[in-house]
Write a structure and sequence with these properties.
Low-confidence stretches: none
CATH topology of the largest domain: Jelly Rolls
Largest sheet: 4 strands, antiparallel
Distance between the termini: 50 Å
Radius of gyration: 17 Å
Helix content: 10-25%
Shape: globular
Strand order of the largest sheet: 1-8-3-6
Length: 141
C-alpha cells in the first residue's frame, strides 16, 4: 500500500508541475521523461549549428517491417495504434504496446515489426541535423 501511495504522489507531482506552466483548464498527461534509450544508453544531443526536428507519423501494415537500421541521433516514439515489436542486434526483443512511448536505441542495429493483423501507427520525433539522414539502412543476413 505504501508503494501505491508513493506512485500516486509522484503522478500528482508530475501533473501539478506540468500544469503549473499552463492554463489550469488543460489536461496534461506525462508521456515520457527519460535520459536514456530503451536499452539504457545515455541520450546525447547532436552538436550542430544546423539543428532540425522532424516529426513523422509512420504506418506499418500487418506483417511488414522497417528494415534493419541505426540512428545516430535521439529518436522518441509514441505508439498510437497497435503493438510494435523491435528486434535488436544480439537477438534481444522489445515490445511497445498502444499508448506507450520510448526512446529509440542509438548506434544499435534494430528493426520494427508489426506482428498484428491491423496497421501499426507510430508518432516519431527525430532530433537531427539539416541535410543528415534520420536513420542509416543496415544490411543484415
Amino acid at each position: 500500500m505504501k508503494n501505491l501511495s508513493l506512485v500516486v504522489l509522484l503522478i500528482c507531482c508530475l501533473t501539478w508541475q506540468s500544469k503549473a506552466q499552463y492554463n489550469n483548464d488543460l489536461i496534461i498527461i506525462p508521456i515520457l521523461k527519460t535520459d536514456t534509450t530503451s536499452l539504457g544508453q545515455k541520450i546525447i544531443y547532436p552538436s550542430t549549428s544546423n539543428a532540425e526536428v522532424t516529426m513523422l507519423k509512420i504506418t506499418i501494415p500487418p506483417g511488414k517491417t522497417t528494415g534493419w537500421h541505426e540512428h545516430a541521433i535521439p529518436v522518441f516514439a509514441y505508439v498510437l495504434k497497435g503493438t510494435l515489436t523491435v528486434e535488436l542486434e544480439g537477438n534481444k526483443v522489445l515490445k511497445f504496446a498502444e499508448n506507450s512511448s520510448f526512446s529509440e536505441v542509438i548506434h544499435t542495429a534494430h528493426r520494427g515489426i508489426n506482428k498484428e493483423s491491423s496497421d501499426l501507427v507510430l508518432l516519431a520525433i527525430y532530433l537531427g541535423e539539416k541535410g543528415k539522414p534520420l536513420s542509416v539502412k543496415i544490411q543484415k543476413e
